[in-house]
């Protein structure tokens, strides 16, 4: 039996690929979105910033920010799922991954956001579940929360066009 | 000469938008405000890009513009809402917006009930082709007073 890889090698590969994926989306940086990784599971983190406020009277996060955060989480989660097998099988080298060498990103076909309560002026989290991922289309559900995992402030469903795979 | 009431309404709408930090961050501008109609635009910017290879703006930034124009259309409706919030917004992305072009969203509040406002919106780039995205939304309508 093959010896398991050293943990640092595994982590470096996975974290490196994730950083390249997220770092390649300027808009995610602009909003202050990062991703926590546990194995292959991702959690989007939206760091609170004054510029994310939509209603200064409440104050509350802008609905557009919430939508964007959920959409970024959906796209990154979907791309990550697409990348994972190639990365783990060694078909994709994590070192030197750039937007040019990464597979193309899925494109949003439609995205529907359900606003459950107003977004508070603090950090927000989101996790996406890929309900169906075929060769051409994928369907994704995303949940967003702040203080309590069980009290969602927004959820969304979207369809995505998968990039064409060479071969 | 433009109609003085529409001028002052545009000015009011611009003041309202400028008071919202995220709208300032995206440099949103009011192009038109009429009964139940709001037209808002925002410039392309490097930091709004979703796909660095093509330079196409992220769908999320277009959502933010459409959401704001939807809310503005509700507030411009003669129902005279005190405030509004998005309950539900569905966006269909028809095509990639041309890089480096201004995006303009036109939202129409086409129906209101006592406490709900329904909105349709379309977003265009400068190419003169069909919309880059269309949206349908339901917004809360707070008329103030009785609760």
Notable features of this structure?
heterodimer, A: 167 residues, alpha+beta, Thiol Ester Dehydrase, Chain A, two-stranded antiparallel sheet, B: alpha+beta, 3 helices, 26% helix
Q: Can you give a write-up of this model?
A:
The complex is a heterodimer of chains A (167) and B (147). In chain A, 29% of the residues lie in helices and 33% in strands. Chain A contains three helices and eight strands. Chain A has helices spanning 7-23, 26-31, 63-88, and strands at residues 33-38, 41-46, 53-55, 60-61, 107-115, 124-133, 137-145, 152-161. Chain A has a six-stranded antiparallel beta sheet with strand order 1-2-6-7-8-5. A two-stranded antiparallel sheet of chain A has the order 3-4. In chain A, helix 1 crosses helix 3 (63-88). Chain B has a six-stranded antiparallel beta sheet. Chain B has a two-stranded antiparallel sheet with strand order 3-4. In chain B, a hairpin with a 2-residue loop joins strand 1 and strand 2 (37-42). The mean pLDDT of chain B is 92. The chains are: A alpha+beta (167), B alpha+beta (147). Strand 5 (107-115) of chain A pairs antiparallel with strand 5 of chain B, so a sheet runs across the interface.
Task: Tell me the layout of helices and strands.
The complex is a heterodimer of chains A (167) and B (147).
Chain A: H1 7-23, H2 26-31, E1 33-38, E2 41-46, E3 53-55, E4 60-61, H3 63-88, E5 107-115, E6 124-133, E7 137-145, E8 152-161
Chain B: H1 4-18, H2 21-25, E1 29-34, E2 37-42, E3 49-51, E4 56-57, H3 59-76, E5 86-93, E6 103-112, E7 116-124, E8 133-140
Antiparallel strand pairs in B: 1-2, 2-6, 3-4, 5-8, 6-7, 7-8
What share of residues of chain B is helical?
A: 25-40%
- What about the largest sheet of chain A? 6 strands, antiparallel
Our count of domains of chain A comes out at 1
Rg of chain A, please? 17 Å
Oligomer: heterodimer
CATH top level class name of chain B:
Alpha Beta
Instruction: Summarize model confidence as the mean pLDDT of chain B.
Output: 92
- What is the number of strand segments of chain A? 8
Greatest contact between two chains: A-B, 40 and 38 residues
Pick out the low-confidence regions of chain B: none
């Amino acid at each position: 039996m093959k010896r398991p890889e050293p943990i640092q090698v595994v982590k470096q590969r996975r974290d490196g690929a994730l950083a390249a994926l997220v770092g390649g989306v300027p808009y995610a940086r602009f909003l202050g979105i990062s991703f926590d990784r546990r194995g292959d599971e991702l959690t989007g983190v939206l760091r609170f910033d004054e510029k994310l406020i939509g209603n200064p009277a409440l104050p509350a996060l802008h609905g557009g920010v919430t939508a964007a955060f959920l959409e970024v989480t959906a796209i990154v989660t979907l791309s990550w799922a697409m990348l994972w097998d190639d990365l783990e099988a060694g078909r994709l080298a994590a070192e030197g991954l750039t937007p040019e060498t990464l597979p193309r990103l899925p494109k949003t076909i439609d995205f529907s956001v359900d606003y459950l309560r107003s977004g508070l002026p603090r950090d927000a989290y989101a996790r996406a579940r890929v309900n169906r991922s075929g060769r051409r289309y994928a369907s994704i559900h995303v949940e967003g929360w702040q203080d309590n995992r069980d009290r969602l402030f927004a959820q969304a469903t979207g369809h995505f066009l998968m990039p064409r795979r060479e071969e | 000469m433009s109609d003085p009431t529409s001028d002052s309404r545009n000015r009011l709408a611009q003041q309202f938008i400028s008071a919202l930090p995220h709208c300032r961050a995206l440099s949103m501008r009011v192009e038109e405000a009429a009964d139940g109609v709001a037209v808002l635009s925002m410039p392309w910017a490097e930091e709004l890009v979703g796909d660095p290879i093509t330079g196409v703006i992220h769908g999320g930034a277009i959502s933010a513009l459409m959401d704001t124009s939807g809310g503005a259309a509700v507030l411009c409706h003669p129902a005279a809402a005190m405030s509004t919030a998005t309950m539900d917004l569905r966006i269909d992305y028809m095509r990639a917006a041309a890089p480096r072009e201004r995006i303009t969203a036109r939202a129409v509040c086409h129906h209101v009930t006592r406490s709900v406002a329904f909105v349709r919106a379309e977003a265009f780039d400068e190419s003169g082709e069909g919309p880059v995205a269309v949206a349908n939304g339901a917004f809360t309508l707070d008329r103030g007073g009785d609760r």
